[in-house]
């Protein structure tokens, strides 16, 4: 039997509590005895184990981060596969077509004509393939032309101030042709038209292009000429399949973002009738460019590295403030046409003029010719005025001579009359004649 040590504690009051602590078998025990006035008592015993040191867990955060990144990567790959599956699936397209057909039932005939309603397209590709074998060449061509027309949306006339809301159901369209309207902005649902290849929106009132235009990955032709643009979004550089870009006649456009350098397939660039004071840097990085129109701007010189455009065929730089042409233009072996004019053009390289690769150089609208033309017009106007003055004088002379002759005849006739009229007029005179 092991001994133990007691420590007693007494408290006075209405209730008495007796407590002691003892050690038994390597354990510390605390015993309490509570005595009430009614004589009831209870013994509470709490056992406390030996003192232990608590360890704080330590984790490797880089390991946790790596595990999390792997999970995120797998999740994104799963999302991408699901998106590709949905895009390849025909169910979404079929649903859109049926929604569009249902909506068309509610339209009036005039609205259908204005919106160029399209013929119904087949939703079963395998049946059309089978029928193709039974068609002649002409019939197949007509079938293809009809199907192509169904993929084109046209809108024109100044009565239009916004895009029709039913257009959002036609995401299968391949071309937009919007011309001569009062539309100021492109619609928010433009991003849904992922298969759009042609966007012709010339001669409208569009003030800017939305950044979402960069998501039109299949876009090959963009015409925003003669609108009210003052800037071009950098996101347009994501349309890497773009082959033709027309920004002419916006008047407030003075620069292009460097991100357009990624348009390596662009062959036609028209930025004429704007406010460019120099050629944009991105232009010299469009290596496939064949036609470049910089006319009617405020250019004062051309860069010395323009020969980086190794496939350039036609260059329009007339109606600027150029005083010379760089010799590097003669190094572009594909260059065939240069159209140049300038009030201060004084230097033209001989090599450029004598180059057999340059088929045509047209110099016009220079200062001397302008002055001569203006002088001729002034002289012509002066001669016309002099001619009119002489004609009027001759007319007056003829008129005076006729009146004089008439008066003489009239006065002579009065000699044979008994009475003389008190007064007369030209009308009465003409009647007498």
TrEMBL record:
Residues 376-403 have a biased composition (Basic and acidic residues). Keywords: Leucine-rich repeat, Repeat. One of its GO terms (cellular component) is cytoplasm. SUPFAM superfamilies: L domain-like. The keyword Repeat applies. It comes from the Eukaryota. Residues 1-19 have a biased composition (Basic residues). Residues 1-21, 372-403 are annotated as: Disordered. Gene3D superfamilies: Ribonuclease Inhibitor (3.80.10.10). This is Leucine rich repeat containing 2.
């Amino acid at each position: 039997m092991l001994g133990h040590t007691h420590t007693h504690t007494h408290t006075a009051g209405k209730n008495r509590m007796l407590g002691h602590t003892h050690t038994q078998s390597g354990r510390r025990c605390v015993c309490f005895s509570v005595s009430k006035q009614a004589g009831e008592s209870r013994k509470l015993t709490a056992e406390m184990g030996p003192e232990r040191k608590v360890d704080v867990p330590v984790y490797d955060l880089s390991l946790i981060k790596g595990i999390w990144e792997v999970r995120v990567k797998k999740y994104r790959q799963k999302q991408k596969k699901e998106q590709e599956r949905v895009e390849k699936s025909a169910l979404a397209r079929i649903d859109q077509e049926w929604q569009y057909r249902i909506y068309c039932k509610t339209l009036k005939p005039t609205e259908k004509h204005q919106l160029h309603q399209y013929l119904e397209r087949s939703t079963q590709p395998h049946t059309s393939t089978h029928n193709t074998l039974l068609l002649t060449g002409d019939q197949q061509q007509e079938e293809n032309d009809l199907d192509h027309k169904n993929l084109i949306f046209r809108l024109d006339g100044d009565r239009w101030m916004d895009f029709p809301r039913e257009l959002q159901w036609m995401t299968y369209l391949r071309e937009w042709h919007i011309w001569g309207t009062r539309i100021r902005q492109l619609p928010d649902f433009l991003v849904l038209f992922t298969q759009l290849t042609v966007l012709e929106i010339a001669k409208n009132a569009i003030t800017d292009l939305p950044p979402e235009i960069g998501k039109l990955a299949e876009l090959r032709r963009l015409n925003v000429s003669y609108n009210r643009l003052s800037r071009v979004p950098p996101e347009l550089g994501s349309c890497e399949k773009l082959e033709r870009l027309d920004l002419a006649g916006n008047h407030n456009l003075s620069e292009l973002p460097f991100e357009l350098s990624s348009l390596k397939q662009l062959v036609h660039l028209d930025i004429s009738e704007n406010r460019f004071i120099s050629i944009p840097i991105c232009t010299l990085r469009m290596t496939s460019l064949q036609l470049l129109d910089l006319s009617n701007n405020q250019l004062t010189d051309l860069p010395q590295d323009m020969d980086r455009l190794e496939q350039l065929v036609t260059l329009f730089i007339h109606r600027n403030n150029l005083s010379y042409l760089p010799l590097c233009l003669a190094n572009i072996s594909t260059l065939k046409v240069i159209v140049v004019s300038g009030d201060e053009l004084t230097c033209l390289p001989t090599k450029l003029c004598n180059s057999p690769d340059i088929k045509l150089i047209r110099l016009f609208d220079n200062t001397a010719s302008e002055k001569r033309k203006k002088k001729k017009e002034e002289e012509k106007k002066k001669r016309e005025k002099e001619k009119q003055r002489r004609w009027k004088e001759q007319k007056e002379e003829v008129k005076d001579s006729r009146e004089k002759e008439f008066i003489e005849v009239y006065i002579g006739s009065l000699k044979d009359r008994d009475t003389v009229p008190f007064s007369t007029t030209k009308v009465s005179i003409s009647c007498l004649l």
